[in-house]
User: Which sequence fits this backbone?
């Protein structure tokens, strides 16, 4: 039995998130059903995390175990990708240690949230339209405040089953890229709905409905009801998952 890390991407528009849910189309369900044709009926995938309904992934990582011999890793990745719908693509396979875990061994995850500053029918599935650009410099002041804290209860979905709401944010910044406004955030872990809640609250900062001191107070109160409304799912992308090099065999 060999364990592999698989890197893949997907457009989350028509899926109810990553994780299998009864009666709902999910990325995990589609991939598992397809891959069982090659790897057997006991095939299962464990991903680095679960994305919510409508959220996209430019780079997701999952691990699986198989007794099927894979002599040509790029060819197998291409074969798997070809078996999947057009909105899911496999990019690479790498053999890893038997105890390597796609979720628990990840040392960081990076998300981007995209806004379009003009109405564009060709970006509506991947960016949220903003009619007016908020104060980017002010939002970057707020982004720097995030790095001072570890408890992000104020930005967590209520009644989750996690043991702690502590996260270590490594970077957070806003950038204007042409007619797109992009928020990038990297952390060791994220709470459910955390990025969308942070972005929604920082929009209030950028629109000067709150000031930086008020943003800081929202974090310190550790109360989801104090924070802003979560932004829509379609603008959110998981863009990178990183691991220590010693998990890989080659």
Assistant:
């Amino acid at each position: 039995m060999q364990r592999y890390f698989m890197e893949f991407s997907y457009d989350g528009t028509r899926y109810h998130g990553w994780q299998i849910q009864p009666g709902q189309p999910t990325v995990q369900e589609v991939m598992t059903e397809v891959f069982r044709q090659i790897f057997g009926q006991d095939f299962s995938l464990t991903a680095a995390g679960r994305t919510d309904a409508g959220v996209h992934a430019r780079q997701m990582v999952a691990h699986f175990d198989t007794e099927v011999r894979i002599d040509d890793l790029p060819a197998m990745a291409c074969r798997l990708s070809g078996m999947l719908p057009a909105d899911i693509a496999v990019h690479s396979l790498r053999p890893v240690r038997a105890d390597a875990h796609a979720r628990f061994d990840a040392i960081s995850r990076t998300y981007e949230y995209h806004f379009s500053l003009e109405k564009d029918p060709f970006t509506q599935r991947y960016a949220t339209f903003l009619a007016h650009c908020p104060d980017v410099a002010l939002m970057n002041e707020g982004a720097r405040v995030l790095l001072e804290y570890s408890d992000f209860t104020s930005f967590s979905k209520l009644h989750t089953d996690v043991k702690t709401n502590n996260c270590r944010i490594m970077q957070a910044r806003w950038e204007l890229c042409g007619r797109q406004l992009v928020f990038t955030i990297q952390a060791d872990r994220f709470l459910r709905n955390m990025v969308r809640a942070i972005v929604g609250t920082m929009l209030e900062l950028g629109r000067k409905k709150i000031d930086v001191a008020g943003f800081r107070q929202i974090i310190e109160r550790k109360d989801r009801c104090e924070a802003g409304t979560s932004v829509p799912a379609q603008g959110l992308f998981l863009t990178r998952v990183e691991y220590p090099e010693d998990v890989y065999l080659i």
